[in-house]
């Protein structure tokens, strides 16, 4: 068994992408096993490796971790990306909660009906520009530091960059009213581990396409559309 | 200004209830402000109290905390309900997140359309009995200890007892196939802080009724 963490998920972003980002940002190499068939998924289930019958699942340090938030918290703490004390941790948790909610809208997007997709697109842009981005813009402006929390690179910075890039894929000029975030994006993207992750050939996954949606639906037998918010 | 945490939410369970449970279990007294009108809510936003324009809001230790999970992680960390090391923390997080998925179904239930209620109730019962409760039954059986993680009372235990009681309100015999959970429920209910929280007059809120649903829709109306 390799010492590298091993990720079990579909060959696409979904709930695993934030985990890939965080491991990459921490400079941690990882392996991946991609779910492609229902049989593979059922085999994982029968083998008892999925605590709540769900993926993401990450084998790390002798544990079979499930639940995205639990996995991310563990990685953040292990690799010192979780602040220096309880209060910094609280700030990081709050900020990540916000970007998580925003990315949640984007994550469900490919699984919505055509009609709901249009509404959801508008919602994503509205939420990004009126609820979430202004908060981080202000945080950065108020303290004038390079990173969101405690003048130190943390999980919150990785998560925010991921969210910015995802929203930009939906509306390329979405940062036009946010000069601090533009500078933040440039700064964090140039951190060596992140720069590497943003280059072709990394384990970063592309925007979900029809093949990805079809695979998820088939493996999970999820043949209904999600309901938009 | 008192030293007690102050909770701002509607006068009902919703997303704040798990926070009330955790503070109570930790033996921490708290104050509550209830949102009853849209105007109150709009004012909170205008005054900059709500980081992402949402409640729950918990004022604690000089912070205006939002985001339910962030708040609970802070409370668990502060009051030693988060295990002794990173690995115990990981277990607690996994258990809490799983239970939270089940609680989410219960949270959304009062807001489901009338023709979907029966199906949603069935889903809650199915998930509780086939996905979530078997996990904790097995955990308790395998280590034979009183608490879920590290032989010590933690956030995971509080979250589980809350979930058991919430599901039982909807499916009274749901624990019939889970002897370990029945024992767990009894043991947790007897712990002094939890026992106190389960008594009438505590800050524990009743199951959501039509008035609660109406208030939610009114306060958060766009």
UniProtKB/TrEMBL annotation, chain A:
<dbReference type="InterPro" id="IPR003080">
    <property type="entry name" value="GST_alpha"/>
</dbReference>
<dbReference type="InterPro" id="IPR010987">
    <property type="entry name" value="Glutathione-S-Trfase_C-like"/>
</dbReference>
<dbReference type="InterPro" id="IPR004045">
    <property type="entry name" value="Glutathione_S-Trfase_N"/>
</dbReference>
<dbReference type="Pfam" id="PF14497">
    <property type="entry name" value="GST_C_3"/>
</dbReference>
<dbReference type="Pfam" id="PF02798">
    <property type="entry name" value="GST_N"/>
</dbReference>
<dbReference type="InterPro" id="IPR004046">
    <property type="entry name" value="GST_C"/>
</dbReference>
<keyword id="KW-0808">Transferase</keyword>
<dbReference type="InterPro" id="IPR036249">
    <property type="entry name" value="Thioredoxin-like_sf"/>
</dbReference>
<dbReference type="GO" id="GO:0006749">
    <property type="term" value="P:glutathione metabolic process"/>
</dbReference>
<feature type="domain" description="GST N-terminal">
    <location>
        <begin position="3"/>
        <end position="83"/>
    </location>
</feature>
<dbReference type="GO" id="GO:0004364">
    <property type="term" value="F:glutathione transferase activity"/>
</dbReference>
<dbReference type="InterPro" id="IPR036282">
    <property type="entry name" value="Glutathione-S-Trfase_C_sf"/>
</dbReference>
<comment type="similarity">
    <text>Belongs to the GST superfamily. Alpha family.</text>
</comment>
<dbReference type="GO" id="GO:0006805">
    <property type="term" value="P:xenobiotic metabolic process"/>
</dbReference>
<dbReference type="InterPro" id="IPR040079">
    <property type="entry name" value="Glutathione_S-Trfase"/>
</dbReference>
<protein>
    <recommendedName>
        <fullName>glutathione transferase</fullName>
        <ecNumber>2.5.1.18</ecNumber>
    </recommendedName>
</protein>
<feature type="domain" description="GST C-terminal">
    <location>
        <begin position="85"/>
        <end position="209"/>
    </location>
</feature>
<dbReference type="InterPro" id="IPR050213">
    <property type="entry name" value="GST_superfamily"/>
</dbReference>
From TrEMBL, chain B:
<dbReference type="Pfam" id="PF02798">
    <property type="entry name" value="GST_N"/>
</dbReference>
<dbReference type="InterPro" id="IPR004045">
    <property type="entry name" value="Glutathione_S-Trfase_N"/>
</dbReference>
<dbReference type="InterPro" id="IPR003080">
    <property type="entry name" value="GST_alpha"/>
</dbReference>
<keyword id="KW-0808">Transferase</keyword>
<dbReference type="InterPro" id="IPR010987">
    <property type="entry name" value="Glutathione-S-Trfase_C-like"/>
</dbReference>
<dbReference type="Pfam" id="PF14497">
    <property type="entry name" value="GST_C_3"/>
</dbReference>
<dbReference type="GO" id="GO:0004364">
    <property type="term" value="F:glutathione transferase activity"/>
</dbReference>
<dbReference type="InterPro" id="IPR050213">
    <property type="entry name" value="GST_superfamily"/>
</dbReference>
<dbReference type="InterPro" id="IPR004046">
    <property type="entry name" value="GST_C"/>
</dbReference>
<dbReference type="InterPro" id="IPR036249">
    <property type="entry name" value="Thioredoxin-like_sf"/>
</dbReference>
<feature type="domain" description="GST N-terminal">
    <location>
        <begin position="3"/>
        <end position="83"/>
    </location>
</feature>
<dbReference type="InterPro" id="IPR036282">
    <property type="entry name" value="Glutathione-S-Trfase_C_sf"/>
</dbReference>
<comment type="similarity">
    <text>Belongs to the GST superfamily. Alpha family.</text>
</comment>
<dbReference type="GO" id="GO:0006749">
    <property type="term" value="P:glutathione metabolic process"/>
</dbReference>
<feature type="domain" description="GST C-terminal">
    <location>
        <begin position="85"/>
        <end position="209"/>
    </location>
</feature>
<protein>
    <recommendedName>
        <fullName>glutathione transferase</fullName>
        <ecNumber>2.5.1.18</ecNumber>
    </recommendedName>
</protein>
<dbReference type="InterPro" id="IPR040079">
    <property type="entry name" value="Glutathione_S-Trfase"/>
</dbReference>
């Amino acid at each position: 068994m390799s010492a590298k963490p091993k990720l079990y998920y579909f060959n696409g972003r979904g709930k695993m992408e934030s985990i890939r980002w965080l491991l990459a940002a921490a400079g941690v190499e990882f392996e991946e096993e991609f779910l492609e068939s229902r049989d593979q998924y059922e085999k994982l289930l029968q083998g008892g490796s999925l605590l709540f019958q769900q993926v993401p699942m990450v084998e790390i340090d002798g544990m079979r971790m499930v639940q995205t938030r639990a996995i991310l918290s563990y990685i953040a703490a292990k690799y010192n990306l979780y602040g220096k004390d309880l209060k910094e941790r609280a700030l990081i948790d709050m900020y990540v909660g916000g970007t998580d909610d925003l990315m949640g809208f984007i994550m469900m997007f490919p699984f919505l009906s055509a009609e709901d997709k249009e509404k959801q697109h508008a919602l994503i842009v509205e939420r990004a520009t009126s609820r979430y981005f202004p908060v981080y813009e202000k945080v950065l402006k108020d303290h004038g530091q390079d990173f969101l929390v405690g003048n130190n690179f943390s999980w919150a910075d990785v998560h925010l960059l991921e969210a910015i890039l995802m929203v930009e894929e939906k509306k390329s000029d979405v940062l036009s009213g946010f000069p601090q975030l533009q500078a933040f994006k440039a700064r964090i993207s140039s951190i060596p581990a992140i720069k590497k992750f943003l280059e072709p050939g990394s384990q970063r996954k592309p925007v979900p396409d029809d093949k990805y949606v079809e695979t998820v639906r088939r493996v999970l037998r999820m043949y209904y559309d999600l309901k938009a918010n | 200004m008192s030293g007690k945490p102050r909770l701002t939410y509607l006068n009902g369970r919703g997303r704040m209830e798990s926070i009330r449970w955790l503070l109570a279990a930790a033996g921490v007294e708290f104050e509550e402000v209830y949102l009853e009108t849209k105007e109150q809510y709009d004012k909170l936003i205008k005054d900059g109290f709500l980081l992402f324009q949402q409640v729950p809001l918990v004022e604690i230790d000089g912070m205006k905390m939002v985001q339910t999970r962030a708040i609970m992680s802070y409370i668990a960390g502060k009051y030693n309900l988060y295990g002794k090391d990173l690995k115990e923390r990981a277990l607690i997080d996994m258990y809490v997140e799983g239970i939270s998925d089940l609680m989410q179904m219960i949270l959304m239930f009062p807001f489901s359309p009338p023709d979907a209620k029966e199906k949603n109730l069935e889903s809650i019962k199915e998930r509780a009995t086939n996905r979530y409760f078997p996990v904790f039954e097995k955990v308790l059986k395998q280590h034979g200890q009183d608490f879920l993680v590290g032989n010590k009372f933690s956030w995971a235990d509080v979250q589980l007892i809350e979930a058991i009681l919430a599901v039982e309100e909807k499916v009274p015999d749901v624990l019939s196939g889970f002897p370990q959970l029945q024992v767990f429920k009894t043991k947790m209910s007897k712990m002094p802080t939890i026992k106190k929280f389960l008594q009438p007059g505590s800050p524990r809120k009743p199951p959501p009724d039509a008035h609660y649903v109406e208030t939610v829709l009114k306060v958060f109306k766009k």
